[in-house]
């Protein structure tokens, strides 16, 4: 899991870019990088280490630019090295790309691009993207066309943000099965892995869905389907959270913050609208068989829920790990699958829900991020 963000505005965006990627550091913190536009040239800076250390060592805040993208990495393809750190650029340095996800056909694409003379400098799957953009821009002489052509060649999961010297005032971004949101401010437009990328500056969010791409400029934005290129009309989601709830609150890392905030978290949970809980209780009562589903830490939440229901409700509800659900669960139209996910974007849990829905099962979820993929795909959410 990695974090990406981008900002475009009328004035210098170095500070909001820094604030955004620092807020996303919980998604990955082994390396960090930025790409900024200086008039018509790309400035790319990156290094291993955390966000604040990187911005300080590279003196990023002194760089003046009205558009930029950033990345904080948790390594998947390639070790933690400078060469494997995002952003990545094309051979002609006209495109810079940040990416969260896994491009499953990158070896095939890389071999073809190498055969055409493209030079690769990393071990990552991401690096095929800027080279594809360069290739198709040379063919079509249009950044949007090159972007869409590239998106439709990629297999796997991705949230991508791109800036280019060919369109120095625009950010191109897209998603497939990796989270991506837009932040719409009066003087600034944002893209990020979640609303933490822009919550300090605007609470107006647009959720980009699978198979969609967006083009942002300082005073406009458009969202399109990347199969048809038709415009998709999107509604604004108002973020109700205070920005302070998403930060470390003076603690050295998020784990300590979560430990010490447990009493407050319990009190907040007890203040939930009881009608939402009643509706979910009715779903459980009316279903012939129910599964509690999570993965990692939330799988232990699911297992504890099994214990609580057996102890207090005299009903056994099995708990399954999301990555085993498709193989083990027996679901039909009389089943309920209740999932737990902190981010609302957990890949294995989304896959389990898709399987359950394909069998006609009812679905519900408890998540911690409004507007997340899971919150929008289930029948009932808390």
List keywords for this structure.
382 residues; alpha+beta; Glutamine Phosphoribosylpyrophosphate, subunit 1, domain 1; Rossmann fold; 2 domains; eight-stranded antiparallel sheet
Write a structural description.
- The chain has 382 residues and is of the alpha+beta class.
- It folds into 2 domains: 3-240, Glutamine Phosphoribosylpyrophosphate, subunit 1, domain 1 (4-Layer Sandwich), CATH 3.60.20.10; 272-381, Rossmann fold (3-Layer(aba) Sandwich).
- It is built from 12 helices and 19 strands.
- The chain has helices at 14-23, 51-57, 106-115, 128-140, 143-151, 254-260, 262-270, 274-286, 297-312, 322-328, 347-358, 373-377, and strands at residues 3-9, 31-38, 41-48, 67-73, 88-89, 95-103, 156-164, 167-176, 181-184, 188-192, 204-207, 212-217, 220-225, 237-238, 289-294, 319-321, 335-341, 362-367, 380-381.
- The strands form 3 sheets. Strands 3-2-4-1-10-9-11-14 form an 8-stranded antiparallel sheet, with helices on one face. A 6-stranded antiparallel sheet has the order 5-6-7-8-12-13. Strands 16-15-17-18-19 form a 5-stranded parallel sheet, with helices on both faces.
- A hairpin with a 5-residue loop joins β5 and β6.
- α4 (128-140) crosses α5 and α10 (322-328) packs parallel to α11 (347-358).
- The longest helix is centred in the C-terminal third of the chain and has 16 residues, at 297-312.
- The chain is globular, with a radius of gyration of 22 Å.
Question: What is the strand and helix layout of this fold?
Answer:
Layout lengths: L2 E7 L4 H10 L7 E8 L2 E8 L2 H7 L9 E7 L14 E2 L5 E9 L2 H10 L12 H13 L2 H9 L4 E9 L2 E10 L4 E4 L3 E5 L11 E4 L4 E6 L2 E6 L11 E2 L15 H7 L1 H9 L3 H13 L2 E6 L2 H16 L6 E3 H7 L6 E7 L5 H12 L3 E6 L5 H5 L2 E2 L1
Parallel strand pairs: 15-16, 15-17, 17-18, 18-19
Antiparallel strand pairs: 1-4, 1-10, 2-3, 2-4, 5-6, 6-7, 7-8, 8-12, 9-10, 9-11, 11-14, 12-13
Helix pairs in contact: 4-5, 10-11
Pfam families: GATase_6 (PF13522), SIS (PF01380)
EC number: 2.6.1.16
Catalytic activity: D-fructose 6-phosphate + L-glutamine = D-glucosamine 6-phosphate + L-glutamate
């Amino acid at each position: 899991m990695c974090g990406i963000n981008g900002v475009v505005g009328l004035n210098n965006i170095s500070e909001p870019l820094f604030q955004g990627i620092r807020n996303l550091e919980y998604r990955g913190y082994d390396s960090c990088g930025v790409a900024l536009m200086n008039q018509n040239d790309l400035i790319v800076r990156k290094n291993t280490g955390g966000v604040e250390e990187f911005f300080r060592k590279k003196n990023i805040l002194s760089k003046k630019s009205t558009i930029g993208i950033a990345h904080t990495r948790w390594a998947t393809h390639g070790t933690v090295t400078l060469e494997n750190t995002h952003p990545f650029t094309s051979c002609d340095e006209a495109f810079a790309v940040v990416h969260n996800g896994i491009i499953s056909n990158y070896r095939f694409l890389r071999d073809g691009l190498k055969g055409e003379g493209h030079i690769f400098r990393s071990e990552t799957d991401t690096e095929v993207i800027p080279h594809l953009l360069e290739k198709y821009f040379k063919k079509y002489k249009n950044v949007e066309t090159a972007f869409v052509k590239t998106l439709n060649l990629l297999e796997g999961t991705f949230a991508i943000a791109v800036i280019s010297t060919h369109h120095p005032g625009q950010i191109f971004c897209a998603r497939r099965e990796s989270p991506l949101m837009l932040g719409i401010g009066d003087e600034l437009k944002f893209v990020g892995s979640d609303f933490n990328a822009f919550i300090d500056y605007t609470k107006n969010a647009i959720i980009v869905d699978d198979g969609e791409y967006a083009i942002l400029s300082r005073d406009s934005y458009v969202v399109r389907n990347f199969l048809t290129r038709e415009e998709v009309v999107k509604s604004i989601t108002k973020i109700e959270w205070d920005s302070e709830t998403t930060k470390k609150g003076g603690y050295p890392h998020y784990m300590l913050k979560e430990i010490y905030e447990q009493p407050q978290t319990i009190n907040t949970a007890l203040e939930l609208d009881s009608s939402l809980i009643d509706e979910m209780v009715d779903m459980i009562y009316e279903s012939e068989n129910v599964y509690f589903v999570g993965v990692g830490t939330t799988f232990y939440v699911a297992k504890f829920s099994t214990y609580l229901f057996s102890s207090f409700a005299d009903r056994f509800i099995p708990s399954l790990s999301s990555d085993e659900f498709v193989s083990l669960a027996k679901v039909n139209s009389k089943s309920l699958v209740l999932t737990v996910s902190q981010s609302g974007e957990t890949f294995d849990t989304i896959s389990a829900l898709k399987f359950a829905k394909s069998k006609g099962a009812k679905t519900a979820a408890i998540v911690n991020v409004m507007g997340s993929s899971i919150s929008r795909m289930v029948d009932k959410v808390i």
